[in-house]
Amino acid sequence: MIREISSGGVVVRHMAEGWSIAVIEPQKEPSAKAPRGKSAAKAILALPKGLVDPGERPEQTAVREVLEETGLTASVVAKLTDIKYVYVRSWGDKQKVFKVVSFYLLRYKSGQIDDISPDMRVEVKRALWIPLAEAPQSLAYKGERDVVRRAQDYLKLHPEP
């Protein structure tokens, strides 16, 4: 089985309404099978993430992917967790892939949400801020919902990361 190692970030920013996180709506066309509990018509929201490049540390990947997919510069606060799953590639060779994604809590530093390069629009339809409190109900994938709950727990213990 092929293995993929990726990394991603939960970017938090304190706004007037409280904590918000940066999420993306992937550009992929909706498939016939939507994630469990989500209708095909509803936007699929996910956390920014991508493959770790050769010679890159996972936390560097998280920061890079956040910048590429959201337009935001952020700094690493803490590692949240690794999620692991198996999927079958829907393109090319249709191989089964074992994937590990390391997720980091990142603190927003600068940038405008959704200010991404035209090349990245192939992957990302849009990036947006959503309230952290709504994220567990808004994200499409269970593993990512669990990651956000870890971020919420971290912020309860460390109100100013």
Q: Helix/strand/pairing class, anyone?
A: alpha+beta
Give the name of the CATH architecture.
Alpha-Beta Complex
Helix content: 10-25%
The number of domains is: 1
> What is the string of helix and strand elements?
EEEHEEEHH
Return the CATH class.
Answer: Alpha Beta
| Total count of strands | 6
Q: Taking Cα atoms only, what radius of gyration do you get, to the nearest Å?
A: 15 Å
How would a textbook summarize the main sheet? 6 strands, mixed
- Approximately how much beta-strand content do the residues carry? 35-45%
Q: pLDDT average, as an integer?
A: 91
Distance between the termini: 38 Å
The CATH topology annotation reads as Nucleoside Triphosphate Pyrophosphohydrolase
Describe the oligomeric state of these chains in a short phrase: single chain
Rough shape?
globular
The number of helical elements comes to 3
